[in-house]
Amino acid sequence: MIFLTFEHILTHISFSVISIVITIQLITLLINETVGLYVSSEKGMIVTFFCITGLLVTRWIYLRHLPLSDLYESLLFLSWALSIIHLFAYLKKYKNHLSVSAITAPSTIFTQGFATSGFLTEMHQSPLLVPALQSHWLMMHVSMMVLGYAALLCGSLFSVALIVITFQKAIRIFGKNNNLLNALFSFDEIQYINEGNYFVRNTSFFSSKNYYKSQLIQQLDHWSYRIISLGFIFLSIGILSGAVWANETWGSYWNWDPKETWAFITWTIFAIYLHTRTNKNFEGVNSAIVASMGFLIIWICYFGVNLLGIGLHSYGSFTLTSN
Amino acid sequence: METHFIISSKMERLILNNPNPSLSKPFLLKTPFLHSVFGHQITPRTAQIRSFSVTCKNKASQDKKLKNVSNKIVLSEAAPPLAEEESDKSGNAEAEVKPGNGSGSTKLVKRLPKRILGALSNLPLAIGEMFTIAALMALGTVIDQGEAPDFYFQKYPEDNPLWGFFTWRWILTLGFDHMYSSTIFLGMLALLGISLMACTYTTQIPLVKVARRWNFLQSGETIRKLECSDILPRASVQDLGVVLMGAGYEVFIKGPTLYAFKGLAGRFAPIGVHLAMLLIMAGATLSATGSFRGSVTVPQGLNFVVGDVLNPSGFLSKPTEAFNTEVHVNKFYMNYYDSGEVKQFYSDLSLFDLNGKEVMRKTISVNNPLRYGGFTIYQTDWGFSALQILKNDEGPFNLAVAPLKINGDKKLYGTFLPVGDVDSPNVKGISMLARDLQSIVLYDQEGKFVGVRRPSSRLPIDINGIKIEIVDAIGSTGLELKTDPGVPIVYAGFGALMLTTCVSYLSHSQIWAIQDGTVVIVGGKTNRAKVEFPEEMDRLLDKVPEIIEPSHNKLKNNDA
Fold first, then answer.
1. Is pLDDT above 90 for A317?
2. Model ipTM?
3. Residue A256: which of B180, B345, B378 has the nearest Cβ?
4. I need a surface site. Which of A237, B19, B166, B212 has the fewest CB within 10 A?
């Protein structure tokens, strides 16, 4: 019982602290950069990190197995992984750290908030491990998958940000050009936007604002590439260890189970992303579009399949709790 | 003007073996072999040629100096002094996407196989294939798989097509009712496999050939044009070499020039990833064509022959001697949590060979299969086969138990003990229901609940004058058997894939430097960590000591 109370307290601390962090970040973003506020938001993230760690450790102790067996626990783990990414960027003192935290902190709050919201409350009760989950592979497979999801979500959010920024710019240029050349067919317009884009990229060195913007775009591009590469490693290891586990439990290393299939689709999409990166023609916006598709697909893979509660991976899905 | 050339490996060896670097000069500068291309495009610059002669001038004095500086530094006698610009250009695979672009019409016929290869290794094609495969897989999870045709007739009727055109005709014609074994899907996978091979052959292996040749840049201009460059006043390349070595770089120094690299494995690893994918595909093909599968439900105490259960899956499936093994289920039991939920299923199995000799005995459970002679036995399911009861202290009788409702892991079994006239049309009796082997719920002739008994309790229950004692609940174990010759290959592919994807994260960083008087011009580039690399380079260059004494002035002779 003491564990449950402790867990409850930690959940609430982490959630409120991270809400404060987000508020502070919004203030710094909207008003101006205040050093003191920024430092306190960093401290807040550290506190959140320790709270979630404590939460996971508590569950681990009183359940006597790694807290990775159902959706609620994997969500907790996901927010933990996101805060790890955040702290990693913070400790490495990357220059663009603020943009990293702008992605990771809200992601953490969403997962944490969703995990602790009433929607899933009935799932907080300590679940018992079904026979198939009693394996050492559980830790390896699920932790790698969730780490992979966290990194890929983060990286693809960078790409979404890149698209938004680039697209804004395109709209502005498009607007300008439209005034000059009124009669343009839509196809020409698209081409023109592309040319305009290219033009801006070339001339950006002359205009300081555009220079910073293209710098930011480059940084986003680079970071989404690096984080997605990292997530891709985790995802690969996760899928492969899952396949080995399936061969021990279900009798085949690949069953075309919906969750498996969607994980493979995710893997394929991010493999496409990594391949687009090898070609200069596809770099930038094109690869970012692929990564944004990946963002949606991760959510389908992570939630959608469980929502339907189909296939062999239906542990802790919504249907099971209603039974 | 663009020319294609690649130095033959033979020539390279010749240069490598040459103990005197100054002798190698006439060979390589005059021998651009103008065939054998995969499109390393170079713009012929003569800068290297110019400076080369210069570097050899003070060879004796430099060698002496090098030895003084550090015995850790690898002397570059063996390194070919090729300043190939093409390796700069082909940092990524992009240069090779469209091979044969600059070829003349006479070479067209000769190059036809290469053109096909080129078309197959085309990146947009590969991306298209991957997208198609992803889309087909997604479709496979949306459309219910493996149902009878009637199911599709109802769900995708012709008079009300999905999205205006999608009816059961599409599904059944294209084989989407069994997506993952349909011709289209397998064909796409095969095409992707061929693309993988073509890409590895035409793009990646030539890249290795280029990347393996370390090279020195001989002009400060070239170095300064690199992605990331810096100028160090009052420094020496030797000091820089030591610093770089400390940071894990492989350092080569030749006269006033320095070349260092790190993470070369990161450049080769993508080939490994592709090969591992091919290995997995090959293993999966073998699995699909050469395996046996089968499942069986065996009541406790009975036995079966392995070969009777296994069904071949493809034309490569060949039965082995181990198929004559007889499996005896000694015991089937379950463990429960305190809350009553099933914790684990166990089957105690004995294996007997043709002579009736027990060759193996093992208790298997979920996650803990039995492996013998190439086949594997998995614990996958369970059932309730019979209920052993005493009726008024007579018996024991075995009542066959039938499954009433099977919904995933939640099962319900029932049996019936007729009471009174068995031949009458509406025979009445005692019903017994069970969710698992733990407890049996009993109902009387009128369907009213009487009580719950555990099989092991030996506690009789009285139902309208009939004394029933439940002696035992006999379960049956659901076993899955398979042989899969593809597993070792697939596992090898898994291992290789994990390793190579990890290594692929490494960034191949290269640093060049040239001593220009007391000034060292440093430049570098990397293929992945494009933001971290400049930071790392800044940090490393800060460590390079500044030389105050004028003893290094004689180095000035080097630059002419």
1. no
2. 0.78
3. B180
4. B19
